[in-house]
Structure formats: structure tokens, C-alpha cells
Amino acid sequence: MEAEVRVFATLRRYLPELAIGEAKIVQIEPGTTLDQLRECLDLPAEEVKVIMVNNLQADPDDLVSDGDRVTYIPAVAGG
Amino acid sequence: MTRKLLRINMSDLSATYEDMPEKWAKWAGRGLTSAITLDEIEPTCHPLGPNNKLIIAPGWVSGTPAAPSSGRTSFGGKSPLTGTIKEANAGGLSSQKIAKLGIGAIILEGTPKDGKWYTLHITKDGVQFDDASDLMGKGMYEVDDLCWQKYPNEPAVIGIGQVGERKLSNAGISVNDPENKPGRYAGRGGMGAVMGARGVKAIVIDDAGGPGVEIADMDLFKQGRKKLTAAIMQHDLTKKDGGLNSYGTNVLMNIINEAGGLPTRNFSAGQFEGAALISGEMVAEMVEKRQSGMTGHGCHPGCIIQCSNIYPNEEGEDFVSCVEYETSWALGANCGINDLDYVAKMTWECNDIGLDTIEAGNTVAVAMDGGLLEFGDKVGALALFDEIRKGTPMGRILGQGVEATAKAFGVSRVPTVKGQSMPAYEPRAIKGIGVTYATSTMGADHTAGYTIAPEIAGVGGKVDPLSKEGKADLSLTFQAATAFIDSTGYCLFIAFPILDIAEGWAGMAESVAGVMGMEITGDDVIPMGKEILKMERIFNERAGFTAADDRLPEFMRFEKLPPHNVVWDTSDEDLDLVYAWVNGTDE
Where does B250-426 sit in CATH, by number? Predict the structure, then answer.
């Protein structure tokens, strides 16, 4: 199965090959958690503040499902 | 405290320095503008009539040595856009200079009997009333240039563009930045029209030789400053090369889009397919590609967050500051426009003619919804700003903001509360910010109670944006904290690190206590914020506002917002809880 992964803002430094908003298609085994997927991509845990799956908040321990749209987000805010 | 009140009466062109009355002595910034507005302005007055006033106040710590990111100036009075009390604040050069002249607030009142326009030149020696004929009809880029040519010592320039001269309800007040460009706007609520109604085109402030800011307890001030600075520099969001410093507030564009809460095409959808193209990441890419402009720009001296930017044009020249999130969203996603160069051109227009970019973008979007232009018509949208500049009948309608424009074009999807249009967060998908929009004393305003921090960013806790649970309390807490921070002179963005780092929160309060000689700690922030909110709420009640005004627009209750397909379903009872304490017996 596979998931599409997006990273934004300062986390883009770890996947510089992606254009802004472009997804990386990642092949994963069933039973993979969001935190394990993050590790596969070498995104530092301390820099991931929020995770979204299919436009909803998610937890690091949540399992990834086939076709999920996963987004890792660093510290952001503004106005 | 020795802070003076500078009362400038335009009816007889007089300026008097008064001792700060005891009843206002503890306030500064928003707390002071709101206290003066409540005491001195008739709540039912016409906002453009002779009985309204413009109150200008630096914050508690503005002008003190190296208090970090403390250059905010509050502008208060009764709003022409909302009819409510208003405080809009801006960065730029003015706050620190007013404070260093020993002035706690400027009260601008009266109307010139001769119908002339004036430039006020404020120095340590007093106020000079100069004929403003040389500035009339000019945009703020030229006004700022001319003022620096005419007046010495690179002064602060507070001014209004053509929209303020015409007293239209979306007129903002510009403050020049360290490069003497306009763009730091007290934008919301039409306070530029209030300044125009006083016959004042510009206020030039030169602090040379001023007495400076008295600090009651220097050790306590230094202790607080140290803690606050450490928190700002430590937090991932506000530190050097962190999210705000690298990408500015527009770091949010892709994130809010991802959350399905990015208002698109006049609040008809929660995601915009062109979000990446107008995002903060794209601004940074353009700066790199065009080898011009900059990210990490400071809007006022002493800012250590530096979230502003200078956007470069296609010719590789520094073009406009600042393409921030609200601006890029309002003039971009909400108009269906995905071209950052056009967003930048419209931002320049807003800066020059003196418009709030949020209200301006929403106005164009509503006009598009009414059939004036197709969504996405960037060329047509840009041309509308020329109509506003020239003051054509069309331009005058657009310059009045969203509600007037919606009526002119027969649009019922009108994203306003109390006459002021919503910023860049969809309340159907992010429920807490909807509570703030509905109940704020200012009309729809994200900064009034920025629940986005915990609802989206995981700052100050983490809550589900789509849940209604606990959002009344959350909004009130944020509204109260904001009212306090808006009084400090600190930028509201210090809230992000100090919500997560308790030492920083304490440090903020200690720095204020040190300057003012007040015995306050971090525990006093929320109660003092509520005191300010109460004053504002009472003004609004006296102006005729009731609970029925604390509501989101009707269409949000039945138009489902994609992608979550949600409506606004927070109950009126929940909304009424937010301010129940004002008239209750518990306070």
C-alpha cells in the first residue's frame, strides 16, 4: 500500500526535492504508524508539531491506511 | 508616572499637555485607547461626526531600552465600519517615538473650521499645525517620502491615503517602516476615515531630545525582558530561522488549506487549489530566484521575530512590504487568484491608497460573487483599485468595504460580523475562531482571540478545530490575553512562545510591572485583559449592540463548506456565555 506525504515550511528542508505542496508517494507496510512513517522520511520528531491525515488532526500512533494524505507540520502560526 | 496626555483640538488648532488622570494611569496601548473612548466618546455619535475622536497610544513597554518586538501603536475610537469601539494596532516607527516624547496618548478631536487639511508635526517642543496642501490627493508612498524630505531626524509618519481623505469605511492608518515605506497598517475598522474626519492627513513624530520612558523598577524590567527574550528566541516558531522568520505569517497558507479552513472564492469553499502558489514558501522562493527583496524583515526597530518580508517584482527590484498571510489570502485565494505577483501589486495599491487588505480582498471577492468579475480575474481585480484611487462612484462603493459592496451587487453571502469582514480562517471548519469572530468587541477579527494557536498549530495546547466543545471558554481566554498584550506595545506574536514557555509569560508581566511600578504577575494578565474587554463591551452596549449582534452570518448555518462539508452549528447560548460575566454578579 502507499500514502502520499506532504511537508511544509521549515520541514521542507528535509525533502528538498519536492516542489511546494507536492506529495511524495511512499510505499508502506500495513500496520505502519504515522510516527514510523516520519522516521522513514528522516523528519526529526522534535520538529514535527502537528500531523494531519486527510485534512484532519492525527496522532503519531495512528495507523496509516492505503491512500492516506499525510501532512507533517512544524511550528507555525501567524495572522 | 510622568506620562502626559497630548490633547490636540483641530477646531481651534490647540495642543495641550495634560497630566494623565488617575483613572487612566494604569493603562497603555489598547487598554488606554479603550478607556479614553469609553469615557470621552459618545457611544451613539456618528463615527465621522464632530463627536468622535482618534486616540493614539503606545504600549506599556514601548520606547524602553531593547524590550523585544515592542513597537506596536494602538489607534482607537468609534469605528465607521462597525459602529463599535475599535482598537487597531500597527508596527512601524511611531510607538517608540511617541513613548520617548513622554506621551502616554494623543487625543485627536474637533474639526478644522476652515475646512483645511493639516500635517501635525510633534516634537519635544510641542505640536506644529502645518498646511497639508502639499500632501493632499497623494498616496502614502509619496507622502512618506515627502515627509522625510521636509522634516528632520527620519521621523515616524502616521498617515492616510486617498481613501482616508474621502472618509470611506475601509480606510486604514499607515505607519512608516524603518525603510520609510508604508505598509504597517492599523488597518481594520476604518480608523483612517476617523483621522480624515479630523482634517489630518499626516502626523509626523520626531522624538529627538525627548525625555524617554521612565522605568519604575529597572531590575524587575530587566528580569522580565530577559525571560521574554529567551522564550522568543527558544521557540521553534519565533526563533531565528524558525517558521515566522523564514516564511512570515504566510507560513500558514498551506497549513490552513490542508486543514480545510482556507476561505476560498468568497467563503464558498475551504480549500484553494492554488494555495501553494501564493504561500509563504513561494514568497521565499521568489526572493531567492529574483535575488531581491527579503524574508526575515523587521517592521519596527528592535523586533527580534522579524516576520515581515519585502517582495521582489518581476524586474528583480524591492517592490512591496509585506505580503503576509491575510493579504495573500484575501487578495489571492478568496478571489480565486493564484498569482503572487498580482497579489503583490494589489498589496502595493492598498498600502498606497490606504486600504485594509483583509477588507479590500473580501470586498473584491464579494463583488466577484455579485458578477462584477469572474473569480480569478487578476487583471480586472487590480484595475478595481484604480477606481478606488480615483474615487469614481464604483471606487467609493468598493472603498466602503464588504457590506456596502454586497448590497450594491445583491449578494447574500456576506462574511461579516458587526459590519467587519472575516479574516483568513473559516469558522465552519475552525469553530473556536468563529466564536471569536462572533463575540469580539471589534467585529470579525482573528487577532482578537487567536484560537488558531491550539486549534491548528498545537501552540498553547491542542484542540480539535471541528469540535464545538469548550470553545466559548477558549475564545474568552484568548480574547482577554490579547487585550492585555495589545496594551503592552509588544507584538501579539510574542503570545506563541509564551503560551508554551511559562517563564516567558511571567517575563512579559514582569517587564510591564517594571516599567509601570505596578504589582502584577503573570496571574494578572487574564483579569486585566477582562477589565479591558468589559470597558469595550459596555461601550458597544451603549452604542446599541446586543447579543443578537454576536452572531455569524446566516449563510454559514446552511451552506456546507467543503471539504469537511460542515456548517456553523455553535448554539447562540454558547456564544452568549462568552460575555455573560460582564453583566453578571460574579465580577
Answer: 1.10.569.10
Chain A positions touching chain B (beta carbons under 8 Å): 6, 8-10, 12, 19-21, 47, 49-50, 52, 55-57, 71, 73-79
Which among B32, B83, B23 is positioned nearest to B56, based on CA atoms? B32
Identify the closest residue of chain A to B246 by CA–CA distance: A10
Question: How close B1 gets to chain A, by Cα (Å)?
Answer: 34
Shortest distance between the Cα of B356 and any Cα of chain A, in A, equals 14
Is cis: bond before B80, omega within 30 of 0?
Answer: no
Query: Is there a contact between B477 and B529 (Cβ–Cβ < 8 Å)?
Result: no
Among chain A residues, the shortest Cα distance to B447 is held by A79
CATH superfamily, region B4-205 = Aldehyde ferredoxin oxidoreductase, N-terminal domain (3.60.9.10)
pLDDT of res. A77: 85
Which chain B positions have a beta carbon within 8 Å of A72's beta carbon?
A: none
Radius of gyration of chain B (CA): 22
pLDDT tens-digit readout, B188-215: 999 999 999 999 999 999 999 999 999 9
User: What's the CATH class of domain A2-73?
Assistant: alpha beta
Identify whether the C-beta of residue B227 lies closer than 8 Å to the C-beta of residue B510: yes
Closest chain B residue by Cα to residue A20:
B276
Shortest CA distance to B82 belongs to which of B112, B40, B52?
B52
Overall average pLDDT of the B90-103 stretch: 98
Chain A closest-CA separation from residue B161 CA (Å): 24
CATH number of B427-500+521-587: 1.10.599.10
**pLDDT band, residue B586 (cuts 50/70/90):** very low
